[in-house]
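tool_call predict_complex ligand=2-O-methyl-1,6-di-O-phosphono-D-mannitol
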Amino acid sequence: MSATTLKETALALVAPGKGILAADESHATIGRRFEALGIPNSEEQRRRYRQMLFTTKGIGEFISGVILFDETIRQAADGGRPFGDVLAGEGIIPGIKVDRGAKPLAGPPGEQVTEGLDGLRERLAEYKTLGARFAKWRAVIAIGEDGRTPTRLGLEANAHALARYAALCQEAEIVPIVEPEILMDGGHSIERCFEVTEATLHTVFHALWEHKVALEGLLLKPNMVLPGTASARQAPVEAVAEATVRCLLRTVPAAVPGVVFLSGGQADELATAHLNAMNRLPGPRPWPLSFSYARALQAAPLRTWGGDPARVGDAQRAFRHRARCNSAARSGAYTAELERSAA
Ligand code: 5MM
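tool_result ok
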């Protein structure tokens, strides 16, 4: 694979009308989602849940790629076909989460840094043999109530790790998704989220440049610019869309082939509405705006499935509906009628 192929893969992941399903929850994260519904967090239940998602008929019309967890890329559907092959058969590109989670940053209290660089070159080589063509690494940035965090040290530590990860991915001819997530937790304003997102993205792109990462061969997975969940001043959909696009225009180079948002805990319909509103703003914009949602795509099908094999069909319908709505949001064509059409 050459630099051209990295770019082609990145562009395929943001093809018109398509976005990414993040299904890369670690055991602890999927366990929290299962626990809320009384589903046992066993390897077999995780396999059955992912099988329900990946075997949804026609899902390749809306989903370009799926981010898998280490366990999942080694699992197979009933009958023994590896999940990577199941996805590729639907025209969906398999990807892999390669970070090993955010851990407390030694030094200033209240900040985290993502681990997983040791042995990453070898792990990427193995994931490639398992069919992965893109990867994901998530940095977690919290906005402190005291106005002091994130610190420059925290931003630089995370940007440095993201850049080293991205460089190793490109060396392995795997497209890196670079995900610096500003958490929604807290009482901060939308303006403070803007300020922190802007500083974070500037720091990340500077580190990518220092590490000689080709911007043409990566995707950015940012948060939207939102007030904290505990803020008394929530923002209308149009204000979130405007602030998010303004922030990206200031910070994301035009060479980047695409932006794929995380949903971050937003209600699923709201995450769709925000993406839709961004794509309705007057352009031109240098990059397509798409999605790489976990919760905003999975909440409805997971609730519907509930661990019951008899509800797989209903759960797949719920998943297809959310995927279709987000696909429409890619071109600003999501409407209340489309949302209701599932009923
Ligand atoms: C921010 O989380 C990513 C996007 O998910 P949402 O759309 O729900 O915000 C997601 O890919 C996340 O990185 C995975 O779920 C893995 O999380 P953990 O915490 O298990 O590494």
